[in-house]
Amino acid sequence: MSKLTYALxxxxxxxxxxxxxxxxxxxxxxxxxxxxxxxxEASCCGASHLQDFDDFLSLVLNARxxxxxxxxxxxxxxxxxxxxxxxxxxxxxxxxxxxxxxxVNEALSEVGLEYKGTSNVRHFLYALIEDYGLENLRKxxxxxxxxxxxxxxxxxxxxxxxxxxxxxNRTKENPYNPTSLDDLIEALEGNSVDYDHKTKCCGFHVxxxxxxxxxxxxxxxxxxxxxxxxDVMVTPCPLCHxxxxxxxxxxxxxxxxxxxxxxxxxxxxxxxxxxCTPEELGLKHHVTEVPA
Length: 292
Fold this sequence. Notes:
There is one protein chain. By secondary structure, the chain is an alpha/beta fold. The chain has 14 helices and eight strands. It has helices at residues 19-31, 50-53, 55-71, 81-96, 98-108, 124-132, 134-139, 162-168, 180-187, 211-227, 238-246, 248-255, 266-274, 278-281, and strands spanning 4-9, 34-38, 76-78, 121-123, 149-152, 191-192, 232-235, 263-265. Strands 2-1-3-4 form a four-stranded parallel beta sheet, sandwiched between helices. The chain is globular and about 55 Å long. It starts with a strand and ends in an 11-residue tail after the last helix.
């Protein structure tokens, strides 16, 4: 198997609010002999908020980020569902609209860049599944997760809209019944928990406008997983993680019940199975304590 190399677009959250996500991503990449080239020049994707305020600026911003992957002649991987949505949406729109692409490139020329459309954009989850392969990942497991009941929380933006997801990934998820996280948990020899809320919204994007609604969405997802005997939850999105981990006590209070469920980032779960230490995975950064 030839060595896999990607341009890693971290987004904002993995560098600031959830530094353990970037730390654990780099840790498992090292274990799997995957090279990740950090795009340190890249900026925020707009977080699905700039898009509502200034659509064209959002396109320029995301095209600029993709340009840095293109300059390195590498495909881009993301580690945030919302970053994936905005970056992939930009790429698809520009690749399918010559006039829009020209207008964006006119703006990019001011900083000496040109968007060409030569780099694919995928979440790291699908790069692992499609390029590295679950069977190869299974062979790397040194600490099987067989004693854990693991609730996969997919979130919204990595699997929806399905048209966009299907355009960029060979793994064609059903947005109502996805299997990628479940399949990965199985490859790590864990027990995947099935529950209704695994594809629901975590509430992150309404935190500021409607905090009670956000807490209800967060609490309902956690409670559903807990009631189905989950020991731990895993998500591929740091924004989902912020709500499910950081706001767990507030969510429990809002829905009027006790909740305690450790929430892991996707690479942290993989790292546990690969034998990474808690320090390598940044487990001490969690608000809801992760037992050693």
